[in-house]
């Protein structure tokens, strides 16, 4: 199964990629199934949030138009925080998503990419605070399909190691929680674009997930334009196979669907 389950278009505030163009590009690349996950980051006033009714109407039209050529799934990426959970619950209850990516993009409305959250903190405090926030969210919210870019904070922290004993324990707790509830993780191939020295999440974290019994795993490019769509998906599938994973997963109507590697 050649699939990319983390794509953004002009319905996200940080992309101007037309959905029609992205679908036709995906077909040209030979992708069999794609999942759109437009951004929704409540708490950040400067961000134009996804127009969900228009997004779902548009994707519905294209599902009909390209039926038989490619499977198109309607997802959303929740940039969730502990204090915004209620807003996300209302959104989830109101709309029929195929999948939900649970991501942490900011803490206390302080965005990572602007260095707002990291400012004045030590590397240890930044990492520990990030994983504590993820644990806090997971303890209160359950309507998601998989975790997005689990160690995304590594993009924004200089120095290493990124996985201390404390962080490993936190991540193990996170994984036990989601595995028990039938949720999964993604491999986010944006790591190559950011010039990171490892996958996202890192290979060590992926192996930890597998060792703890994790099976549900998907791959997404986090693509926002033509060059990024489908990037390194097949190579990452091969690497997961070498790690011992038996399948990758796509999602339909909030249910995971396995495809043998």
TrEMBL record:
Enzyme class, spelled out: hydrolase
Reaction(s) this enzyme catalyzes, per UniProt: L-histidinol phosphate + H2O = L-histidinol + phosphate
GO MF, one annotated term: histidinol-phosphatase activity
Domain PHP: 4-190
Entry's EC annotation: 3.1.3.15
GO biological processes: L-histidine biosynthetic process
Gene Ontology cellular component list: cytoplasm
Keywords attached to this entry: Amino-acid biosynthesis, Histidine biosynthesis, Hydrolase
Pathway assignment: Amino-acid biosynthesis; L-histidine biosynthesis; L-histidine from 5-phospho-alpha-D-ribose 1-diphosphate: step 8/9
Family label: Belongs to the PHP hydrolase family. HisK subfamily.
Name of protein: Histidinol-phosphatase
Organism of derivation: Eubacterium barkeri
């Amino acid at each position: 199964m050649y699939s990319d389950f983390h794509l953004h278009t002009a319905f996200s505030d940080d992309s101007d990629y037309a959905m029609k163009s992205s679908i036709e590009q995906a077909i040209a690349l030979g992708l069999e199934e794609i999942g759109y996950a437009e951004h929704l980051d409540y708490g950040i006033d400067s961000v134009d949030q996804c127009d969900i009714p228009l997004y779902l109407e548009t994707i519905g039209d294209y599902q009909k138009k390209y039926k038989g050529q490619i499977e198109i799934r309607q997802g959303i990426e929740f940039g969730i925080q502990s204090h915004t959970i209620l807003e996300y619950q209302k959104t989830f209850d109101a709309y029929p998503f195929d999948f939900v990516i649970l991501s942490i993009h900011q803490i206390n409305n302080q965005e990572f990419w602007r260095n707002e959250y990291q400012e004045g903190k030590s590397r240890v405090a930044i990492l520990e605070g990030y994983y504590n926030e993820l644990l806090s969210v997971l303890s209160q919210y359950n309507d998601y399909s998989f975790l997005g870019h689990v160690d995304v904070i590594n993009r924004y922290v200089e120095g290493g190691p990124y996985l201390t004993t404390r962080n490993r324990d936190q991540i193990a707790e996170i994984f036990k929680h989601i595995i028990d509830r039938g949720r999964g993780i993604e491999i986010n191939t944006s790591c190559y674009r950011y010039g990171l020295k490892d996958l996202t999440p890192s290979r060590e974290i992926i192996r930890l997930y597998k060792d703890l019994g994790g099976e549900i795993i998907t791959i997404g490019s986090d693509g926002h334009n033509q060059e990024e769509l489908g990037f390194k998906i097949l190579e990452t599938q091969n690497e997961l196979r070498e790690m011992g994973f038996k399948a990758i997963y796509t999602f339909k109507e909030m249910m995971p669907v396995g495809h043998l590697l």
